[in-house]
Each structure stands twice: as structure tokens, then as C-alpha cells.
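Consortium newsletter contribution from the modelling node. Members have asked for a concrete example of what our holo predictions look like. Here is one, prepared for the fe (ii) ion complex that several groups have been discussing at recent meetings.
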Amino acid sequence: MSLSDRGWQVFPAEPATIDWARSVSTEVSDALKTTERRHGATWAPGVDLLKNDASGAVAGGVALVGEALVAAQSLIGPLPLHAAQISAVWPGYPKQDPEESDANHHYRRARDAAHIDGLLPEGPNRRRHLREPHAWILGIGLTDTPAAPLVAWKGSAPVFRKAFTSAFEGVPPESWGDVDVTDLYQSTRRKVFETCARVEIPLQTGEGVLLDRHVLHGVAPWAGQDTGPRVTAFFRPELPTTAEWL
Ligand SMILES: [Fe+2]
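And here is the predicted structure:
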């Protein structure tokens, strides 16, 4: 099964990716001390948290290289790396925040907070629009913790691609962000839960995972060992033009 059919590809750790993970470890643990946590302080979204350059290197560190990045950069051509998202999960994830609805909390526990990146929920009714047309999502493991792994639904990317193609039919790409895709997104998600296999993808330090931008994915609730956190660096560069998103 190809990346676009299954929805992701895992790459073994290489000496170079392990070196990169080690080279950012001090910056990562410092940044996680002060960054915002949610869900009862058991999760940090960590968007743009790592102060790396376009090669992925932090000051005095090394560039990110390796097969996973090569595979990502071959999909639509080289894109500069942005400040990495440092996604961290602690034992007990997910706890419920006071302002979080029971429905949202239940979805996070029962369905791994499954989502497609870039379709942000907005306003009290959490209506979704295409706001961030990511090219791809590349995750690099920064810890060896198997708890609360990334989860993805096998074969969900083509299902969502088809749904979004119908939603944006006849709409110029510069106006795709105006289309409210909430209902279609939710019905497609239900279909994927019924028809696609849920697969857990734990990452060891230096292991990589390349996700198709249309694959349904989330984070499993914490189970097992009680030492954490589980930390992953994500690069999600945006496409040069929205038209390339489909
Ligand atoms: Fe995501």
C-alpha cells in the first residue's frame, strides 16, 4: 500500500535522525517547562515551539536529514522547515478542562480526538474551514515512550480526498477557505470510523512517520507506564498554493 492509499509511512531511526533528536533535546525540555498545556495539563500542542532554522537545526545543533525527510521533500518539491511543533503528552491524558464540553472530552477519550490537520474549529459552534493547507506532516520521535501514541485510520486519506473534492467543486481555490465543511467533515469521519482500521503508530527516538495531509489521525489516551512525557516533533509546511491541497 502506498503512502497516499494507506495514509502514512514509518521510517526506522537512523544515526542522523537520532543525532538530530539529541541535538534538540535540551531546547525541547526547556520549552516544555513554560508552554501552555491543556486537558488538565496532560497535553501541550506546542505549535511553532522549537526555535530551529529552515534546515531543522537549533543553535549549535545539526540539520534534520534522513530518509523520512527525503521522502517528504520528494512529494511536491523541497519546502523550507518552519519552527517545529513539539507535541507532548503526559500520564493521565486526556483529563477534562473546566471549559471543555463533555462531548468534546468524550470524543477525545473514545475517538483519540481524530482530526484532519488544517481544518480548524472556529467559534462556539466549532464550524470548520480549510485554514492551513499543509503539504505533508512529518513526525520525528523524541522519546522512547510507547504510551499515548499517534493513531491513524488506514485508507482514510482517499475517502477524505473524495469528500473534499466534492465540497470544493466549482469553487476557485482562493475561496476554499470560505466553504463551511463541518457537516461533510463529520459525516466522512463517521464513515471512516465504520470502514477503516484504527492503527497505533508509536515512535522511538529518531523514528519518523510521514502522514498524508488527508489522513484521519489523533492521539490515543495514555495507558500503561506512568513516566512521561511522550514527545514528538512535527513539521507541517504549508503548500505554496491552496490549489495543490486536493
Ligand atoms: Fe494533527
